[in-house]
Amino acid sequence: MKQLGQSELLQQWYRSWFLWWKEQTVFRKVFPGISICLYWLVIGALGGFTGDHLTVGVLLFLLSYGGRALVPLLEFCLPFLLTSIVYDSQRHYSDYIRGPIHVTEPYNFDKTFFGISTPQGVLTPNEWFQIHTHPVLDVIMGFYYLAFFAIFMGVAAYFYFWLTKKGTPKFSASEMKVRVPRVIWGFFWLNMLGYSTYYWYAAAPPWYVTKYGLGPPNMSAVASSAGCVRFDQVLGTHFFSELYSRSADVFGAIPSLHVAFPLLAFYYAIQFGAAQFFCLLFYGCMVFAAVYFNHHYVLDVIWGSCYAVIIGVITDQVYSRYLLKNSSIKV
Asked: Does the bond joining 255 to the residue before it have cis omega, within 30 degrees of 0?
């Protein structure tokens, strides 16, 4: 078979793209570009435009206008990109809409219900772990805590791209195509629910109490990598210090989204009949790491876990009753 030259491949791509472009509505042609420009203009007007904003905008532009072949990738990435935009935006308005900050209540809850008796008195699990650390745990748990977002995306991609071609013991490939979008949009709405909680129940994380005490909230406090610094110290890196320097909100400890994402993945792993063990392991590691690294109380973990189940159930119901009502596939 004759191999196509580079110019012929380019011509084929252009013809394919042009046909796709002709099929699009006027709204579909202009809305992504206008939205990206408005996004850049707003961020620039607020004085916070960085290379990250440029990267997100360019990526959205390429996926939106890249043609038919990139449509599945756009559909997959869109909830993640929208989540990152909303998260980043909080730095510009969080101080204006945040309710009273709870410093003592989460601490006292953990001490009352999960306190550990020691010769020094009753300690919260966070306090106990800070005097019972180990370099091996620091590295293993640090990896999971650092890569939790990427791991969730990997699981979602496995569901979205692989299982929709191969199917599972419970569902055929065509049935999976109907079901998998709820995973990534469940992720988006889980984040929106979590972010909203940051404002109607703003809460200080345990590392804040370790550093600033149980007194009135210190509004000048900056985000800390807390126990995760041990991961960087063992490996001689700066991953966590650089990551938390970009944190948008110090008082967003409740719920723990680090824990909520893996449980949402596990919820759908059970639903689909695939990757259950891996997702359960992911969830267990994140539960431990969140407390071990002094980032979250047990209360935060419970709260985040409840949110994950709630969003999973609601997303299932929405897709089953409304989004899939005209589908020929039984949901």
From this structure: yes
Q: Positive or negative, the Cα torsion across 249, 250, 253, 256?
A: positive
Q: Which DSSP helix (H) or strand (E) runs through 101?
A: strand 101-102
Of 42, 72, 97, the domain-final residue: 97
pTM over 0.90, yes/no: yes
Question: Do 55 and 184 have their domain in common?
Answer: no
Q: Total domain count for the chain?
A: 2
Residue 3 contacts by C-beta under 8 Å, 6 or more apart in sequence?
Answer: none
Give the residue carrying structure tokens 């000048």: 220
Buried b (16+ CB within 10 A) or exposed e, 98-110: beebbbeebbebb
Same domain, yes or no: 30 and 48? yes
For 77, the domain range is: 1-97
Return per-residue pLDDT of the chain as tens, 331 residues: 445 567 787 888 888 999 999 999 999 999 999 999 999 999 999 988 999 999 999 999 999 999 999 999 999 999 999 999 999 999 889 889 999 999 999 999 999 999 999 998 999 999 999 999 999 999 999 999 999 999 999 999 999 999 999 999 999 999 899 899 999 999 999 999 999 999 999 999 999 999 999 999 999 998 899 999 999 999 999 999 888 877 768 899 999 999 999 999 999 999 999 999 999 999 999 999 999 999 999 999 999 999 999 999 999 888 877 655 655 555 5
Region label for 236, one of left (φ > 0), alpha (ψ between -120 and 50) or beta (otherwise): left
Indicate the Cα dihedral angle 161, 164, 167, 170, nearest 10°.
Answer: 110
Last residue of a domain, one of 97, 130, 165: 97
